[in-house]
Amino acid sequence: MADQIPVSSTLRIDFETGLTEKGDIAFKRRSFTNIKTEATAEQLFSTAVAISSVQNYPMSEVTRVDTYSLIG
Amino acid sequence: MAKVLEMIFETEEGKSATIAVENPKNPVNVNTVKLAMEQVIAESVFVSGSGGFVSVKGARLVERNVEELELS
Lengths: 72, 72
Known about the structure:
A: three-stranded antiparallel beta sheet, B: 1 helix, 4 strands, elongated, DUF1659 (chain A)
């Protein structure tokens, strides 16, 4: 039997910065570490909205990256 | 020149923790910054080495000046 325990979480926000030369949407990604592993989706999304409110570029995708340690 | 908005929070142990946002709104509204910081505290997803964020300590715009040197 193996088990997993949460190690760390990262909040990642993609901002739309304009268009590329080919006409695709250009993104700028910002990662915030030091996120509580027990943070809920609601809390994380609301935090991303708060951070975006002082940002010049519109918020695109918000991602949560969780790391677990596997113990066998 | 590139500006960075630094939002400074007081942590549980009375120390400072900073969240830096690149490309802040220009001009940035003081009330918007305050509301964003209060929302970040309320959602409580961040944890620093000296605990979670408990209050707003301050905010500042940091500007970096780069001067290219002519080498030839």
